[in-house]
Design brief:
Elements lengths: L8 E6 L10 H8 L3 H12 L5 H12 L3 H13 L5 H10 L3 E9 H10 L7 E4 L1 E4 L18 E5 L10 H9 L5 E6 L2 H4 L7 E5 L6 H6 L2 E3 L7 H14 L5 H13 L3 E3 L2 H11 L4
Parallel strand pairs: 1-2, 1-6, 2-3, 6-7, 7-8
Antiparallel strand pairs: 4-5, 8-9
Helix pairs in contact: 1-2, 1-4, 2-3, 4-6, 5-10, 10-11
């Protein structure tokens, strides 16, 4: 792990499922189809690192065969189950000039709609593209916008986000011409695989605690709130800039959670001591 300077993380990458939202979108689709048991098992094995995501991705989609309308329903469920303080953290990061991204192995229709609601630029959101059977549903009624909603899944675009090690390639693509240090926040093994390609990897266990992620993260956040991400990304300088603004309660909450010691675990004492020195006078 690098020795972080808390004020220098400018490109912030978030996973979506079980990080920005408390659900796994693919499992929610399975629930709608009454197939949550088998699909949920495959999802957990992939996120825990027991199976490569490539081995389960197609199996899950073939079992579910989602429609556009069902993906719209998942977008709504994402929004209804937004992780505590996620919108406030993203808004504060953007107020500081940080660039926020979402990189997800979920399905683009739902993830992009959810990300837009969180205030993230759609151009900075990456997820898995689907192909739909345009001859399914009321295909003949092309003049009616709702007709597209009944189109069913046909295939998916295999790529970096359908394998467990692929998110690093997406980070490289998105950050290629952007200055600043990179932070990744996520809950699963596919997120952890980006660790060597970012300056700081933060494991988030506020929804699901995964042992491998907990053991190998640079910093591990275990509370149900994303508020600690804000001071970890923004540092003391960020606190000074946000104090007296509408964002002050969120950054203060994140600092206090970090100082408690119960919810934010640092992989080494040097990093922990540095965080305390930065913020101990705020407690």
């Amino acid at each position: 792990m690098v020795s972080p300077r808390w004020s220098t993380f400018d490109l912030i990458f978030f996973d979506c499922d079980s990080t920005l939202s408390t659900i796994e979108g693919i499992d929610e689709l399975a629930r709608l189809k009454g197939k949550e048991g088998r699909v949920g098992l495959l999802t957990n094995k992939a996120m825990d690192g027991e199976l490569d995501l490539a081995d389960v991705y197609g199996k899950r989609l073939r079992a579910i065969k989602p429609t556009r309308a069902q993906l719209k329903a998942v977008e709504e469920r994402y929004w209804q189950t937004t992780v505590e303080d996620a919108p406030a953290v993203i808004a504060a990061l953007q107020a500081l000039g940080k660039q926020v991204f979402i990189i997800s192995g979920g399905l683009i229709d739902a993830v992009k709609g959810f990300g837009r609601r969180l205030g993230v630029d759609p151009a900075r959101i990456r997820a898995v593209e689907l192909e739909y059977n345009e001859l399914s549903g009321r295909w003949w009624d092309y003049a009616e916008p709702q007709a597209q909603q009944t189109q069913t899944y046909l295939d998916y675009d295999e790529g970096p986000l359908t394998v467990s090690s692929g998110k690093a390639a997406i980070i490289g693509e998105l950050a290629r011409d952007l200055p600043g240090r990179r932070m990744m926040v996520g809950d699963g093994s596919s997120d952890l695989a980006t660790k060597v390609d970012v300056d700081l990897f933060i494991g988030f266990g506020g929804v699901v605690a995964r042992e491998a992620v907990m053991a190998e993260s640079d910093i591990y956040v275990s509370c149900p709130s994303l508020a600690p991400i804000l001071p970890l990304a923004a540092g003391r300088r960020g606190w000074e800039l946000l104090r007296g603004t509408a964002h002050e309660p969120t950054v203060r909450k994140g600092i206090l959670l970090g100082l408690q010691g119960e919810y934010v675990a640092f992989c080494d004492e040097t990093s922990r001591d540095r965080f305390i020195r930065e913020f101990e006078d705020i407690a």
